[in-house]
Amino acid sequence: MVRWLIVVFLALVLIEGLAPWLRRLGLGRLPGDFHFRLFGREWSVPLASTVVLSALLALAVKWL
Prior knowledge:
The structure is a single chain. The protein is of the alpha+beta class. The protein is 62% helix and 19% strand. The protein is built from two helices and two strands, in the order H-E-E-H. It is globular, with a radius of gyration of 14 Å. The chain has one domain (2-63). The longest helix is centred in the N-terminal third of the chain and has 23 residues, at 2-24. It comes from Pulveribacter suum.
Protein backbone atom coordinates (compact mmCIF):
# COMPACT_ATOMS: atom_id res chain seq x y z
CA MET A 1 0.00 0.00 0.00
CA VAL A 2 2.87 2.37 0.73
CA ARG A 3 4.19 1.75 -2.77
CA TRP A 4 0.87 2.91 -4.29
CA LEU A 5 0.87 6.04 -2.16
CA ILE A 6 4.34 6.89 -3.41
CA VAL A 7 3.29 6.29 -7.04
CA VAL A 8 0.18 8.48 -6.66
CA PHE A 9 2.21 11.23 -4.98
CA LEU A 10 4.84 11.19 -7.74
CA ALA A 11 2.15 11.22 -10.43
CA LEU A 12 0.47 14.24 -8.84
CA VAL A 13 3.78 16.09 -8.60
CA LEU A 14 4.53 15.31 -12.25
CA ILE A 15 1.09 16.43 -13.41
CA GLU A 16 1.32 19.62 -11.37
CA GLY A 17 4.70 20.37 -12.93
CA LEU A 18 3.42 19.75 -16.45
CA ALA A 19 0.14 21.65 -15.96
CA PRO A 20 1.34 25.05 -17.30
CA TRP A 21 2.82 23.39 -20.40
CA LEU A 22 -0.35 21.37 -21.01
CA ARG A 23 -2.52 24.48 -20.59
CA ARG A 24 -0.56 26.17 -23.39
CA LEU A 25 -1.56 23.23 -25.60
CA GLY A 26 -5.23 23.76 -24.69
CA LEU A 27 -5.60 20.86 -22.28
CA GLY A 28 -7.34 21.87 -19.07
CA ARG A 29 -9.61 24.29 -20.90
CA LEU A 30 -11.85 21.80 -22.68
CA PRO A 31 -15.60 21.58 -22.05
CA GLY A 32 -15.91 19.19 -19.13
CA ASP A 33 -12.85 20.54 -17.29
CA PHE A 34 -13.97 22.16 -14.06
CA HIS A 35 -12.17 24.99 -12.25
CA PHE A 36 -13.25 26.45 -8.93
CA ARG A 37 -11.86 28.38 -5.97
CA LEU A 38 -12.22 26.92 -2.50
CA PHE A 39 -10.57 28.06 0.74
CA GLY A 40 -8.49 30.65 -1.12
CA ARG A 41 -6.97 28.11 -3.51
CA GLU A 42 -7.81 27.37 -7.13
CA TRP A 43 -8.74 23.76 -7.84
CA SER A 44 -8.95 22.03 -11.19
CA VAL A 45 -10.77 18.82 -12.16
CA PRO A 46 -9.76 18.08 -15.79
CA LEU A 47 -12.25 15.33 -16.72
CA ALA A 48 -12.34 15.94 -20.48
CA SER A 49 -8.59 16.45 -20.73
CA THR A 50 -8.03 13.16 -18.91
CA VAL A 51 -10.21 11.32 -21.43
CA VAL A 52 -8.36 12.91 -24.37
CA LEU A 53 -4.93 12.10 -22.93
CA SER A 54 -5.99 8.51 -22.16
CA ALA A 55 -7.23 8.01 -25.72
CA LEU A 56 -4.01 9.43 -27.17
CA LEU A 57 -1.86 7.21 -24.94
CA ALA A 58 -3.96 4.14 -25.80
CA LEU A 59 -3.51 4.83 -29.53
CA ALA A 60 0.22 5.36 -29.08
CA VAL A 61 0.60 2.09 -27.16
CA LYS A 62 -1.49 0.21 -29.73
CA TRP A 63 0.66 1.45 -32.62
CA LEU A 64 3.94 0.71 -30.84
